[in-house]
Amino acid sequence: MTNYTISELAREFSVTPRALRFYEDKGLLSPTRDGLNRVYSSSDRARLRLILQGKSVGFSLSDIREMLDLYKLDGHRAQLKLALKKSRDQVRLLNKQKADIEGSLTTLNDGIKWLESKLAELGPGEEVEQSARAYERVARAGLEGDVASADT
Length: 152
What we know:
Blueprint: E1 3-4, H1 6-13, H2 17-25, E2 32-34, E3 37-41, H3 42-56, H4 61-74, H5 76-122, H6 126-144
Helix pairs in contact: 3-4, 4-5
């Protein structure tokens, strides 16, 4: 049986040792102890992979725990059925969020086009002329070696 240290798993999965201790505190991982050192088994490694995959698609830690714990209690079939149901629910949620985001982007892009057209209708404004004068002052000051005089 292969064992892993906290550093090895943290490095392999690009997480911090603190994250592994957090998952242990939440009851998602159960390393054994060798003195003060945590020793992770192949099972802990597989659970960590599932935890991180679940997090990456938006499952809560309680959902992840529920799916992982079913394997111990009822066997593989119950775990697979629950994971399937939760995965389908998550796909529905993410598709709704995607549609909401696409709607927001459409609204923002339409607003940007409207604002750009209004600014174009107004032509160059006073702020453009002020910016050009300020740029010229900064450029002159830079050539003269005195940036502070650009504020005048």
